[in-house]
Specification:
By secondary structure, the protein is mainly β. It has 2 helices and 27 strands. The chain has a single domain, classed as Hexapeptide repeat proteins (UDP N-Acetylglucosamine Acyltransferase, domain 1, 3 Solenoid), CATH 2.160.10.
């Protein structure tokens, strides 16, 4: 069964400005809401921006946000209060970082929504994805967004109508280092994936996903 947006994300933890983005029932439809949200973006830069950072296009940077040395940000992008873009990080157009979200050293985010406290801290790629509140992905984790054969992304046989969609990770999900999430992955709240896992499809909330080398899913206790 495909998990719906209301199963994945606690609206009480989401910035008021971003709550409407989570209105679609299907989590992959949130990507279209991102585009609509950024259409009339106000260009405003109130955060702490290092002089070596490069910012191009319309970018909203809230008071309290931090942009570190040599970061590169392409608009349109929205960066919320206390969010952080780290050294040599690359935030591409169509990205939204909620309050306290972090894109760390040498990580790249493209057309994605990171909700409050979500972290892509070290050498990550996050493409066309939604990361729930307080999600953490370990060093080297990649969220791949494009089918090898160029086909539409399907999830449990359901055609998303998208050629690019990686993953929707529910609140408090933790992904171990060097794991790869293939296009069309949905993981329920509070799940944990061991390091080095290769993930595809739908994984239930409160599960532990092990790589032995075949994927094993067990309920957390």
């Amino acid at each position: 069964m495909i998990l719906r947006s209301q199963d994945l994300f606690n609206l009480d933890l989401v910035d008021d400005e971003l709550k409407s983005l989570l209105s679609p029932e299907n989590p992959w439809d949130i990507l279209a809401e991102i585009d609509r949200f950024l259409e009339d973006l106000e260009d405003s830069r109130e955060g702490d921006i290092h002089p070596t950072a490069v910012i191009k296009g319309k970018v909203f940077i809230a008071k309290g946000a931090s942009i570190k040395p040599h970061a590169y940000i392409e608009g349109p992008a929205w960066i919320g209060p206390n969010a952080s873009v780290g050294h040599a990080a690359y935030v591409r157009g169509g990205s939204i970082l909620g309050s306290g979200a972090k894109v760390g050293h040498a990580s790249e985010v493209k057309h994605s929504l990171l909700l409050s406290g979500a972290q892509a801290p070290h050498f990550n790629y996050v493409g066309d994805s939604v990361l729930g509140n307080n999600v953490n992905i370990g060093a080297g984790v990649k969220l791949a967004n494009f089918h090898t054969m160029g086909k539409n992304i399907k999830i449990d046989g359901v055609d998303t109508g998208l050629r690019k969609f990686s993953a929707a990770l529910g609140d408090n999900v933790s992904i171990g280092c060097n794991s790869v999430l293939s296009p069309g992955t949905i993981i329920g709240q509070d799940a944990i994936a061991y390091s080095g896992a290769m993930l595809l499809g739908v994984y239930p909330a409160n599960s532990i996903i092990k790589n032995r080398p075949n994927i094993e899913v067990v309920e957390r206790t």
